[in-house]
Write a structure and sequence with these properties.
mainly beta; 270 residues; four-stranded antiparallel beta sheet
Length: 270
């Protein structure tokens, strides 16, 4: 499958992204990027989650050596009835309970994820099967062996993305019941190393797989707000709205400390 891209900019992705790709297709995908005359090609991987594969970049015109974009390294095996821990390090990869989407059995299993110092870990849960109160994953920041809970993910959870405080997180999955062979259970998730974590005052999405369209109401004499995931790049089709209410007798002054947008619109309604 050869795809030719000729525009000044664009986006390309693996088959069925962000869901799991069909293994029989992944070795057959080739993208040929032709830049306008006088320009060079810049490729940025915004998300990179693959299993036992890699992306190869080749400059055939100038004869430069190929560059291999690899996955992270992993050691250990998830064995729930032994409370085992899998250690992962690198830029990112996907991981799941054994045999997902089949139920993995009863017990606990953990994934200890480390990225380079100065970077943060972004953990994204794509799917979770099983009863919410019997089948769930807890995420902790464990940088410098100091445990801090970042949240819990279960089926129908509102939040499916978690960002570390430092460069080390632990994902602990717990299953409290046994199931018949073939019954659904467990999860599939991914992690990636990022340069920054979203500010606590940036707007967010209310539910997984549906971008935020809710209105955030701000009260008080002062405050801060930011676009989706700021200072990280925001995805397409995001709508963020804020309603600011000042105390009686006061006017509202807005100051933009940072303003970097694509051809989008910011509307101020009074």
């Amino acid at each position: 499958m050869n795809i030719v891209l000729r525009n000044a900019s664009g986006v390309f992705q693996s088959p069925w992204y962000p869901h799991r790709y069909p293994y029989e297709l992944i070795n057959k995908c080739h993208w040929k990027i032709i830049a306008p005359k006088g320009k060079v090609v810049r490729i940025e991987f915004l998300s990179f989650r693959i299993c036992d594969n890699y992306a190869q970049i080749t400059d055939r015109i100038n004869g430069l050596n190929s560059r291999i974009v690899k996955i992270s390294v992993s050691s250990g095996t998830c064995i729930l009835n032994e409370s085992s821990t899998v250690h992962m390090a690198g830029e990112g990869r996907s991981f799941s309970t054994p045999g997902y989407p089949s139920h993995p059995g009863k017990g606990t299993c953990s994934w200890n994820i480390t990225v380079s110092p100065g970077e943060f870990v972004k953990v994204t849960f794509w799917e979770m099967e099983g009863s919410s109160n019997q089948n769930y994953a807890e995420v902790y920041d464990v940088t410098n062996s100091r445990w801090k809970s970042l949240g819990t993910f279960a089926r129908h959870s509102r939040v499916n993305e978690f960002y570390s405080i430092g460069n080390n997180v632990l994902v602990e999955f717990t299953s409290r019941y046994l199931a018949w062979p073939g019954w659904p259970g467990g999860f599939i998730a991914s992690y990636e190393a990022v340069k920054a974590a979203p500010a606590r005052y940036s707007c967010s999405k209310p539910t997984p797989n549906w971008w935020s369209k809710n209105v955030v109401t701000l009260h008080g004499y002062n405050g801060e707000f930011a676009s989706f995931g700021y200072p990280l790049p925001y995805p397409n089709d995001v709508k963020c709205s804020w309603e600011i209410k000042a105390p009686l007798g006061y006017v509202i002054q807005l100051t933009f400390h940072s303003f970097h947008l694509q051809p989008d619109v910011v509307r101020l309604l009074g």
